[in-house]
């Protein structure tokens, strides 16, 4: 009989499960986190849990928050188990489970409640995981998208916002009027210079209705950059059965993740911060190089294997990595086109980092799916692939592999794999992407007629030529042949 996770159950957890190593009644809030998904609970919540177990930083406990109707489901699940989460690390050498207790509350899913919680002087950091596409970035200019309906609404209704950033501004306004110090805003999303992007959005939104507030935010609010990393699959019946049958715990909000984590932060927290360096986080003056390394090698690597693997019918990521052609394709495009765009980092070997990425992708315990890697391509491609491609073009370097990656995405967007099986839609723009991809059967450049994704890149003659050629090749000869052709090209190039 499985033990239902709750505060009262902590003293009687099944033997293999580690309980929080501290008294939760001693915790007090310091961080409000918006977007309490799996990644947050496997990453930030884990680091804080480990810190509290050392008896350190216990005035930095988490308060959860959400702004979307779907966040209510997560809140309900966590409330029923006293905000506790079972975290299972999927180590091939042996699974282990730990109950994470660093969250002590969760605001109602209501803008007024979220604003009130952020206005509380105990909250000194507001952190976010709201997905890469949630920052209102104009793809054409790479700046703040002031024309988005959410931004227009919040500029017109600053006291009744509907976006995260409108709520942050409302809380900052409250604190300013009350004479309270502003909280630090910490983005934990996979964006280059995520702190700077977050600041640009908050200040840009303020400027639409209150220039004085915008200036005050610019001068007084810290937005440190950060780099986060931990592969965290979605929770399904598989994971719920795992925690129940393997560890004897009933947890509707169980999280599974790989046994690897990395967190690199710019040390810019005027109102203080938890001493996370005691549990492995790195505080540095400039996160940018680490951030770019992760975004391009890991996230770019995920994108590189996602679409060819889907076209070939691979379901799990580790199955795809067991395919010699997929593994060779990943190493080739990383080594020849992605890694050369990175500036050196003192003490870091990019070759070793790539080897670790390959090892992580191949971990059979994770159960990460190719479908998850393919998710939301219209937001992820402009973050993880197209900037690298643009830099290669600017430097007059080869782009065959990156153009092939975009071609694989186009072929995937047609909606069927190579054996004719339907691919389930997993992009908010899937209808437009499908129509453009199918039109590319007639005109291979039709797929680039998407300024929200490609911006000015679609006008580059060399990219247009390479993309058209690589797309035609995969359409006519298939995925394996396209990979083999690229691998041969890299061998020929290396030999000359």
TrEMBL record:
Domain Mannitol dehydrogenase N-terminal: 30-277
Coiled-coil residue windows: none
Domain of life: Bacteria
PANTHER family recorded: MANNITOL DEHYDROGENASE 2-RELATED, MANNITOL DEHYDROGENASE DSF1-RELATED
Organism listed in the record: Paracoccus onchidii
Annotated protein name in UniProt: Mannitol dehydrogenase family protein
Keywords: Oxidoreductase
Domain Mannitol dehydrogenase C-terminal: 286-471
């Amino acid at each position: 009989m499985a033990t239902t996770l709750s505060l009262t159950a902590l003293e009687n957890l099944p033997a293999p499960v580690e309980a929080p190593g501290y008294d939760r009644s001693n915790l007090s809030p310091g961080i409000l986190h918006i977007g309490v998904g799996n990644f947050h609970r496997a990453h930030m919540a884990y680091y804080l849990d480990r810190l509290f177990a050392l008896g350190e930083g216990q005035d930095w406990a988490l308060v959860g928050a959400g702004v979307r109707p779907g966040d209510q489901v997560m809140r309900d699940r966590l409330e029923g188990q006293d905000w506790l989460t079972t975290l299972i690390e999927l180590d091939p050498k042996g699974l282990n489970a730990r109950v994470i207790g660093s969250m002590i509350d969760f605001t109602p899913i209501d803008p007024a409640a979220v604003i009130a919680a952020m206005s509380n002087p105990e909250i000194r950091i507001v952190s976010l995981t709201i997905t890469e596409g949630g920052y209102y970035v104009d793809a054409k200019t790479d700046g703040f998208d002031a024309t988005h309906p959410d931004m227009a609404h919040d500029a017109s209704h600053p006291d009744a916002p509907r976006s995260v950033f409108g709520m942050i501004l409302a809380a900052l306004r409250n604190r300013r009027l009350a004479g309270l110090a502003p909280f630090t805003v910490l983005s934990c999303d996979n964006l280059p210079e995520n702190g700077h992007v977050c600041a640009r959005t908050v200040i840009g939104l303020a400027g639409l209705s209150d220039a004085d507030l915008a200036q005050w935010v610019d001068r007084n609010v810290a937005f440190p950059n950060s780099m986060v990393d931990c592969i965290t699959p979605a929770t399904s019946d598989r994971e719920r059965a795992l925690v129940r049958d393997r560890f004897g715990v009933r947890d509707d909000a169980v999280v599974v993740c790989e046994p690897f984590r990395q967190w690199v932060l710019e040390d810019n927290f005027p109102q203080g911060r938890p001493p996370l360096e005691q549990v492995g986080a790195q505080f540095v003056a400039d996160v940018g190089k680490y951030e770019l390394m992760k975004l391009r090698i890991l996230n770019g690597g995920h994108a590189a294997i996602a679409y060819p693997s889907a076209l070939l019918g691979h379901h799990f990521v580790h199955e795809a990595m067991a395919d010699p052609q997929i593994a060779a394709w990943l190493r080739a495009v990383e080594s020849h086109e992605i890694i050369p765009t990175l500036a050196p980092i003192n003490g870091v070997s990019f070759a070793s980092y790539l080897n670790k990425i390959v090892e992580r992708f191949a971990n059979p315990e994770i159960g990460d799916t190719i479908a998850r890697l393919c998710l939301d391509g219209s937001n992820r491609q402009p973050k993880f692939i197209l900037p690298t491609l643009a830099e290669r073009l600017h430097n007059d370097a080869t782009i065959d592999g990156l153009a092939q990656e975009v071609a694989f995405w186009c072929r995937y967007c047609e909606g069927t794999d190579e054996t004719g099986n339907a691919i389930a839609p997993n992009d908010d723009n899937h209808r437009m992407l499908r129509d453009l991809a199918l039109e590319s059967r007639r005109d291979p450049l039709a797929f680039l007629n998407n300024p929200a994704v490609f911006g000015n890149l679609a006008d580059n003659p060399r990219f247009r030529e390479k993309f058209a050629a690589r797309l035609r090749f995969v359409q006519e000869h298939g995925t394996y042949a396209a990979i083999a052709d690229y691998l041969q090209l890299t061998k020929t190039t290396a030999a000359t």
